[in-house]
Design goal:
2 domains; 404 residues; Growth Hormone, Chain: A; 16 helices; globular; mainly alpha
């Protein structure tokens, strides 16, 4: 937009750092909480409950959280949830009782997700959806995924559980500090000044307003792509790992494969700005997502060869790394600045739904057909959805171009 004032370098770099810390925090807890649960004698079922509890509140309140950012200010809400995350992480070592651990997981999972929603919202507000800068944001965010498990592994091995959880608190504290360096991208007269208790309660109008955004063609398209993107992640984080173990790979080899793929994902996101000049963004997103699904579907055809599996997995994650900033950019351009938080909240809710549905559906398919044929069948379902979406895009392309 011609009247858009570019953000200062300090704000932009701080927003990149906020992405790194907010995404990395989830990886810290993903690693340390199961280890802590094992020390407390938790059963496999209890560990599964702990892991799943992290997304429960987010599924119901992500839209509300995004609306809060639009109403109260993204920066202010991010600061609150960063402080909450740091405080809750420090409580784990002193509250080892399982029901309290589940409660902590639900609360800190919500706080962490709100920090990530805030990071996505504030970069969209600062850049007005510029693909190159959002690609850089995605790169630094993914670096958080690479760094966090390594740091937590060192803390756990050399300092123990208590220091590990305090390390999570310190990580949240650093996130708080970088958020303070971001200039408020929202106009003061559009935000609630003095906050009362009514301002923080969920409102039906927030949910209906966010759901109405899904009626916009560009928004509906990005939600569909995001749903399929997270569907492949759901398969990857469950039955892909099971398949790798079944064909004889040790946990270390699987970890190496995933680390390489995450690095590929990070660097691919940097190319989003250049790639966006090739074709209209919707076609790029659809094409990369289709190839990504196909690469997952052919897993059983690669003969259990580590090199082939690693290349296919890294390529798949690389295409996802390209799609993410393009998706952020398209959504940022599709809606006005005063509802950027709401659109991110809607997308996160959509993603959580995909993460719940996909593993269950894949499980049913695997029980019926077996794990090898299950990949092909699930891939066929998702590729059919891509084909239908391609027809819709082709028929409505003129309307979409006007929106861009």
């Amino acid at each position: 937009m011609s009247d858009h004032v570019p953000p200062s370098k300090r704000s932009l770099h701080a927003a990149y750092a906020a992405g790194l810390f907010s995404m990395g925090q989830a990886e810290l807890l993903t690693m340390v909480v199961p280890l802590w649960a094992v020390l407390q004698g938790a059963s496999p079922t209890e560990i599964g409950i702990l892991v799943g509890a992290k997304s429960m509140i987010t599924f119901f309140l992500a839209i509300h959280g995004g609306a809060l950012m639009d109403r109260l200010g993204t920066r202010r809400v991010m600061l609150f949830f960063a402080a909450v995350s740091g405080s809750l992480a420090a409580l784990y070592p002193v509250l080892p009782w399982f029901p309290l651990m589940v409660t902590l997981q639900m609360l800190i999972g919500f706080a962490g997700n709100m920090s990530w929603i805030g990071a996505q919202t504030i970069i969209a507000q600062l850049t007005k959806g510029e693909p190159g800068k959002i690609g850089q944001f995605s790169f630094f965010s993914r670096l958080g995924n690479v760094m966090a498990p390594l740091l937590m592994g060192l803390l756990w091995d050399f300092a123990g559980p208590t220091v590990s959880f305090l390390g999570v608190s310190l990580w949240a504290g650093l996130m708080f500090l970088v958020i303070t360096q971001i200039e408020n991208p929202q106009k003061a007269d559009t935000l609630v000044g003095r906050i009362g208790w009514r301002d923080i309660l969920p409102r039906l109008s927030d949910y209906t307003g966010s759901l109405k955004l899904a009626l916009l063609p560009l928004v509906a398209f990005t939600l569909a792509i995001s749903f399929m993107r997270h569907a492949t992640n759901g398969v990857e984080n469950s039955f892909f790992i099971v398949y790798l173990r079944d064909v004889g790979f040790a946990g270390t080899m699987i970890g190496v494969m995933f680390s390489i793929a995450e690095i590929t994902n990070s660097f691919a996101s940097l190319a989003a700005g250049r790639v966006a000049r090739w074709l209209p963004i919707p076609w790029l997103m659809l094409g990369f997502t289709t190839v990504s699904i196909a690469l997952l579907a052919i897993t059983p055809l690669l003969g259990g060869a580590f090199l082939l599996l690693a290349i296919a997995h890294s390529m798949r994650r690389g295409f996802e790394g390209l799609v993410q900033p393009l998706m952020f950019s398209l959504q940022a351009k599709a809606v006005p600045s005063h509802v950027q938080g709401s659109i991110v909240g809607l997308r996160v809710t959509n993603n959580r739904l995909s993460s719940i549905i996909t593993p269950i559906l894949m499980g049913l398919i695997v029980e019926t057909l077996g794990i090898a044929d299950g990949f092909m069948a699930m891939g066929g379902v998702l590729l059919t959805a891509c084909a239908i979406l391609a027809v819709v895009v082709a028929r409505t392309q003129s309307k979409w171009s006007a929106g861009l």
